[in-house]
Design brief:
Elements (H helix, E strand, L loop, with lengths): L7 E5 L3 H11 L3 E9 L1 H7 L5 E8 L5 E9 L18 E5 L3 H10 L9 E2 L12 E8 L5 E8 L1
Parallel strand pairs: 1-4, 5-8
Antiparallel strand pairs: 2-3, 3-4, 6-7, 7-8
Length: 154
C-alpha cells in the first residue's frame, strides 16, 4: 500500500460566498459541487457534536481539490497567527501555475495584495529536476489564509 496523492485541502471559512468568489473568479478554480453535511457520520469523523456545515468542492485543471467549509454549528474557532509564515502547522497552499506573471497581474487587477514581487529560488540553495528554476510569490485569500503561486521554468 502507498499514498497515491493529496486528494484535497479543506479550508474552514467564515463567509462561503466571498471565498467562493475569490477562488473561482479570481484564481479560476471550478466549482464541482456544493452540499450540506450533518449527522452522526460527520460528528464521528471530526470529533464534534451537532455538526451542520455547507461544503463547496473546487477543482483546478490538474484535478487537485479544495473544500471550502462553513460550519453552521458548532461555531468555528479562529487560529491565532493564521497566515503568518512561521506559525507551526500547515501554513500555506501552493498552486503550480504556467504563467506566473500573467496570473499575478490578473490577481492584482482584482485587488489581491502580494507579500512581495515574484522571487526566483537560487539554484545554489535548492535544485529542481532538469535544473528548472522555481519562481514563487506569496499572498493571502480574503480570510487570511497564506497561498503561493509557483512556476518551474528551464
Amino acid at each position: 500500500m502507498e499514498i497515491e496523492c493529496i486528494d484535497h485541502v479543506n479550508i474552514v471559512v467564515d463567509d462561503l460566498s466571498r471565498m467562493t468568489e475569490f477562488y473561482t473568479s479570481i484564481l479560476g478554480m471550478k466549482t464541482v459541487r456544493k452540499v450540506t453535511i450533518s449527522g452522526e457520520w460527520v460528528n464521528a469523523v471530526v470529533g464534534l457534536k451537532d455538526v451542520v456545515a455547507d461544503v463547496l468542492f473546487l477543482s483546478c485543471s490538474s484535478g487537485a481539490n479544495i473544500e471550502l467549509i462553513q460550519y453552521r454549528s458548532p461555531a468555528p474557532v479562529m487560529l491565532e497567527g493564521l497566515g503568518r509564515p512561521h506559525v507551526k502547522g500547515i501554513r500555506h497552499i501552493a498552486f503550480r501555475v504556467t504563467d506566473i506573471e500573467a496570473l499575478v497581474t490578473r490577481c492584482q487587477s482584482s485587488g489581491v495584495d502580494f507579500v512581495s514581487g515574484v522571487q526566483d529560488v537560487p539554484l545554489g540553495q535548492v535544485s529542481f529536476e532538469g535544473q528548472a528554476r522555481k519562481r514563487l510569490i506569496y499572498f493571502h485569500d480574503p480570510e487570511g489564509n497564506l497561498l503561493e503561486f509557483c512556476a518551474y521554468v528551464p
